[in-house]
Amino acid sequence: MMTILEGATRWGSGEPTTVQDAAVTCSNCGETVFAQTVGDVTCDACDAAFYATDHRSETCSAVECADCGEVISFIQEHRCTIGEWDAYHCHHCTKNIAIDTDNGPQPPEKLLQTDWVLTGQLPDDPGTDVTYGVWMTRPRTAREEFATKVLNAEAKANDSSFHAYVPGETNAHLCFNGEYCIGYITWNYDSDQPELGQLYILPEFRGQGIGSAFVEAWLDDIANSDARFNVNNPNANMFRLLRSIGAIEVTEEGMEFHRCDITGHWFDVPDEWKNQSPSTD
């Protein structure tokens, strides 16, 4: 099976390997610290800060960036922070290619596996059914919240309309199948109506009715299936989905809104709908 993040322009992946890289010895605990810096270094083992000058060459775990071919070693200078986890980025093409976990550096795809996101065990009640073999839940743990960050990074890399969402600062629902966390919905309340902010499903799982079923299940979970809801700044794909669930209808006179209202100031109406634009009155 192709990687579930195939085509992402931010996340990369690659084959694990090793490389010779610069290392120093921690003056506090004696452990090897991989760092090219001459100067202040923090030990990964004991968190002690010390001044490094005696660099030597040691075998270091690394990964080959699948996008540019560079071999990236897991050293301090290649680190960044995503949520509460350390990540490693390719210094050549700037993609994040691995995330540090208790089991060592892992590719971002690993961090979307259902077993990892749900802390290795499925709960007795995993959540609300979306459609056959797919369910949803609200993020309750650091790993679940981190899954929204991984998905949002993928979404933003492929569609600029997703830049407005900052994970952790609004409500969310996560969508799972037996193997992966495959999508999310963000939402808030606008006045007395729930407001759908963003919907993202990984490309590999589209075209199966999951997105429309996810929206219906989300609405039923926070209100009821017949409730009217708002949709903030929908893109073209969201307009198509709203039409597929009967929330809007496209006629010769324009768009008729049966179950939802459009909010915000940015709209991306599908080209095939021609000159139909929603009213925000």
Overview of this structure, please?
InterPro entries: Acyl_CoA_acyltransferase, GNAT_dom. GO terms for molecular function: acyltransferase activity, transferring groups other than amino-acyl groups. Residues 135-276 form the N-acetyltransferase domain. The structure is a single chain. The chain has 281 residues and is of the alpha+beta class. 15% of the residues lie in helices and 36% in strands. It is built from 4 helices and 19 strands. It has helices at 114-117, 142-158, 210-222, 236-244, and strands spanning 16-25, 32-34, 39-42, 49-52, 56-64, 71-73, 79-82, 85-89, 96-101, 104-106, 128-131, 134-137, 171-176, 181-190, 193-201, 229-232, 248-251, 254-257, 260-263. The strands form 5 sheets. Strands 11-12-13-14-15-16-19 form a 7-stranded mixed beta sheet, with helices on both faces. Strands 2-1-5-6 form a 4-stranded antiparallel beta sheet, with no helix packed on it. The chain is elongated and about 75 Å long. It starts with 15 loop residues before the first strand and ends in an 18-residue tail after the last strand.
- The portion of residues assigned to helices is 10-25%
According to CATH, the homologous superfamily of the largest domain is: Gcn5-related N-acetyltransferase (GNAT)
Task: Provide the spatial order of strands within the biggest beta sheet.
Answer: 11-12-13-14-15-16-19
Secondary structure: number of strands: 19
CATH architecture level-2 label of the largest domain: 3-Layer(aba) Sandwich
Q: What is the global morphology?
A: elongated
CA-CA gap between termini: 47 Å
What is the N-to-C succession of helices and strands? EEEEEEEEEEHEEHEEEHEHEEE
- Number of folding domains? 2
In terms of quaternary structure, what is this? single chain
Q: Tell me the major beta sheet.
A: 7 strands, mixed
Low-confidence stretches: 7-11
Pfam family, one: Acetyltransf_1
GO molecular function, one term: acyltransferase activity, transferring groups other than amino-acyl groups
InterPro entries: Acyl_CoA_acyltransferase, GNAT_dom
Protein name: N-acetyltransferase domain-containing protein
